[in-house]
Write a sequence for this structure.
């Protein structure tokens, strides 16, 4: 995973808790105290009801594959990792996120349950990946 | 047809297309603008409003106006990806309806073939870029995989779109790819992001285009007969992340298309020729479903048996599309150009006989936004 330095996500007040969480092996998402819905990606205001009363919660880390693709051609630095599986994971909380699915590619299919695992890229960045449960 | 005659497209043109080394986005737009104004029988001095899209300058609209020597009293540089130009036609018509101007020049230019630019990560895509999803193809691949899983759509059905579109390109001397193509060629082409192969993807070209929109009053003094905007609709679903798209198999064309058809007061049966954005083969299948030409899930069957090819009963993407004619990045303007030429009867070998009404649907981002325009001649 060398050479990923330039793809480091920007850390600010929206994103800090998510990336810090991943480093500590916690999948952090947001929850709206007013409409009681979950939110991802993180933001200052609830996209469902526009409430400012949003708080961080640790997600279950469990979900299912909403869709996936096997990437055979990619731009640097990911070209060195092909083929790899990118998926939309729908967490049990209802929000969807892009991630990698690791493990046996032949067993991967839409709707299969997955659980979060953590891939340490370097001291600054850990990515939440998923594997079949 | 119930629509009033408010605004018409009176001039269309492409710039040089394909591989245009040494050019730039301003040269291409100027070239297309000159040709489209000539086509209309108008001059630069007729232009009161200027529209463009693209991220090639800090203030693209201002730079273009200065380069062209136009001082527009109305400037719109809305960029919503591939549907920008359908959107521009809609905005121009709204402004004409409001009495703000009579003549608008809409231009596009891109050198994505000879000088590609890589878009930096953004505030909202930073949660996905580190996972290496190639954009936009990865997002369209996710949609294709979902459609296949949900409805049993096959790679062969996707390939039908590429093959039929190539047959149209073979009838268009301006098309970049004109050699014969069959379904096995598509299926045997290298995989990029499953289930999409290289030949499921649009071209990457240089090129530009221009469209002149006029009020009914100004259209009366144009050189060629007007192609009226009979109906239109726009809809936005999400930004570039398909994670925020409610259903990966349903594009916003369901909404923009419905409103456009309602405004025009027409049914599907009255449409003679259809031009929809074909960034990828799956885009076409999803769009035909969303526009209501078939039911959800039936898009694969709909395009089977080369139904959309020349001689088939559903003429689609008659220029050869982004898949085979050209694709500098925002293909929407070329959909409009082709639809206008079909309605004027200027398409020679690929002419759809007696075409009176065309549906044009641009798709921008990653199935993020659509703009539908219904065009018709008297
Ligand atoms: Zn809320």
């Amino acid at each position: 995973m060398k050479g990923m330095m330039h793809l480091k996500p920007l850390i600010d007040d929206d994103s800090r808790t998510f990336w810090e969480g991943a480093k500590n092996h916690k999948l952090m998402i947001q929850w709206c105290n007013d409409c009681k819905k979950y939110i991802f990606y993180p933001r200052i205001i609830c996209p469902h009801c526009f409430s400012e009363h949003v708080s961080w919660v640790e997600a279950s880390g469990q979900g299912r594959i909403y869709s996936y693709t096997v990437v055979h051609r990619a731009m640097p630095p990911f070209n060195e990792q092909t083929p790899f599986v990118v998926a939309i994971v729908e967490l049990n909380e209802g929000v969807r996120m892009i991630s990698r699915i690791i493990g046996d590619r032949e067993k991967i299919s839409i709707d299969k349950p997955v659980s979060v695992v953590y891939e340490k890229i370097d001291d600054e960045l850990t990515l939440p990946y998923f594997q079949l449960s | 047809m119930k629509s009033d005659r408010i605004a018409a497209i009176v001039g269309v043109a492409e710039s040089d297309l394909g591989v245009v080394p040494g050019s730039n986005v301003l040269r291409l737009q100027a070239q297309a603008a000159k040709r489209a104004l000539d086509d209309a029988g108008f001059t630069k001095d007729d232009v009161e409003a200027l529209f463009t899209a693209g991220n090639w300058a800090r203030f693209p609209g201002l730079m273009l106006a200065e380069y062209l020597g136009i001082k527009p009293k109305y400037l719109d540089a809305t960029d919503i990806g591939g549907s920008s130009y359908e959107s521009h036609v809609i905005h121009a018509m709204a402004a004409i309806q409001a009495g703000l101007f009579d003549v608008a020049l809409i231009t596009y230019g891109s050198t994505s073939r000879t000088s590609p630019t890589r878009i930096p990560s953004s505030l909202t895509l930073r949660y996905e870029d580190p996972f290496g999803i190639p954009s936009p193809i990865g997002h369209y691949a996710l949609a294709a995989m979902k459609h296949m899983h949900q409805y049993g759509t096959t790679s062969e059905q996707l390939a039908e779109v590429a093959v039929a579109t190539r047959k149209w390109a073979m009838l268009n001397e301006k098309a970049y790819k004109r050699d014969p193509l069959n379904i096995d060629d598509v299926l045997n082409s290298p995989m990029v992001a499953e289930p999409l192969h290289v030949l499921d993807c649009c071209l990457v070209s240089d090129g530009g285009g221009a469209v002149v929109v006029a009020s009914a009053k100004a259209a009366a003094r144009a050189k060629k007969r007007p192609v009226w905007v009979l109906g239109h609709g726009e809809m936005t679903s999400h930004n570039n992340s398909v994670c925020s798209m409610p259903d990966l198999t349903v594009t916003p064309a369901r909404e923009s298309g419905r409103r456009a058809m309602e405004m025009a007061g027409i049914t599907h049966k009255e449409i003679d020729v259809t031009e929809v954005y074909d960034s990828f083969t799956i885009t076409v299948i999803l769009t035909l479903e969303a526009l209501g030409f078939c039911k959800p899930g039936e898009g694969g069957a709909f395009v089977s048996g080369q139904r959309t090819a020349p001689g088939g009963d559903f003429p689609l993407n008659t220029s050869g599309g982004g898949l085979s004619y050209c694709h500098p990045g925002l293909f929407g303007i070329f959909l409009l150009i082709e639809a206008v030429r079909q309605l004027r009867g200027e398409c020679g070998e690929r002419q759809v006989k007696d075409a009176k009404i065309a549906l044009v649907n641009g798709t921008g981002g990653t199935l993020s936004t659509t703009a539908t325009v219904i065009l018709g001649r008297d």
